[in-house]
Amino acid sequence: MAEKRDYYEVIGVNKTATADEIKAEYRKKAKKYHPDLNPDNREEAEAKFKELNEAYEVLSDPDKRRKYDQFGHAGVDPSYGAGAGGGFNGAGFQMDLNDLFGSFFGGGFGGGTRSARTNPNAPRRGGDVHVSVGLSFMEAVHGCTKSVTISVLESCSDCHGSGAKAGSSPVTCSQCGGTGYVRMQQRTPFGVIQNTAPCQKCGGKGQIIENPCQKCGGQGRVKVKRKLDINIPAGVDDDQTLQVRGRGDAGTNGGENGDVIIVVSVRPDTVFERDRYDVLVNVPVSYATATLGGTVVVPTIDGKLEVTIPEGTPSGKVLRLRDKGIRYLNGRGRGDQYVTVIVEVPRKLSKEQKSLLQQFDKSLNIEKNCEQQRTLADRIRKMFGK
After folding, report:
1. Structural domain boundaries of the chain?
2. Is the distance from CB of 281 to CB of 271 less than 8 angstroms?
3. CB within 10 Å: which end of the chain, N or C, has fewer?
4. What share of the chain is helix, strand, coil (3-state, %, to 5)?
5. Within a 10 A sphere around the Cβ of 33, how many other Cβ atoms?
6. How far apart (Å, rounded) are the C-alpha atoms in residues 83 and 105?
7. Which CATH superfamily, name and number, covers 269-345?
8. Could you tell me which of 323, 324, 143 has the C-alpha nearest to residue 236?
């Protein structure tokens, strides 16, 4: 079996990371490695995306994370690392970590004494399925419906989730006595230390399926691909998450289904930029329009709009269009649109145009018409004299 990487290493956090820190780092990497965003290296991206989702499925679930922290990959995948090492015949003493820590703290090490352990046959919620959805700027602004194909675990229709062939039932595991855990011995410099780990024979379930269902192989669930239509609300932003409840992996032992978690990735637009719910756009105007005033056609997220440019508008002037921004997500109202005026300087002029422009420039009264030039000239005189 190939050696699995540490799940914390896969996501890029340390073992003391909070749930929010794990989620934030997962979102960054999900966006980075999503196959749709890596068309030139799709195969490698798919492998990394799969590994990332596997790690997040464990570390985002408090119960699975606890087992992983205590037992490693074997705690969440009983088929991993089967055949744990036994004790040794040399001198020493035997120690049970559960008994040792229980004597100090009144409970077992890493999850309590055997009587306090989670019932392996108790209802368990299904895992969440994570998917990244790419949107254009306008799709995010106005909302849309996206269809995605997801792989989910569904309850087996032949055995109805029991894992046993029709007419048979699971039996209690003879190795762990139905607890799902067995004692293990580990050699240390201090002797043989006993600890508990998920039972390898029954996979930590406490039961053995002697006549497994042929369709699901005794797992009780089968992996299927399902098409899911996702309603994207108007106003969603890049890196936000949406949740579709009950459409994730099926639970076990009668547990509820998990959810589908959608990470939104919004592609940059060639015209508009976004600042929360406000829209930003640059609009070029001619020198004459900026000087004399006039109207220009401005693009908005709702269509074209004629905007008045006041006389004497300098380049960089920002005009505010109220209520022309993005609608608030799950709320009333909307942001504004900010139009930055860019005075466009002509690059190719005829001789006649150049002559006229030079005459115009000579006719200007700097004191009255060119405030910035006048201000700079005054400062230079104060600094260096005439």
Report:
1. 269-345, 349-386
2. yes
3. C
4. 30, 30, 40
5. 21
6. 31
7. Urease metallochaperone UreE, N-terminal domain (2.60.260.20)
8. 143
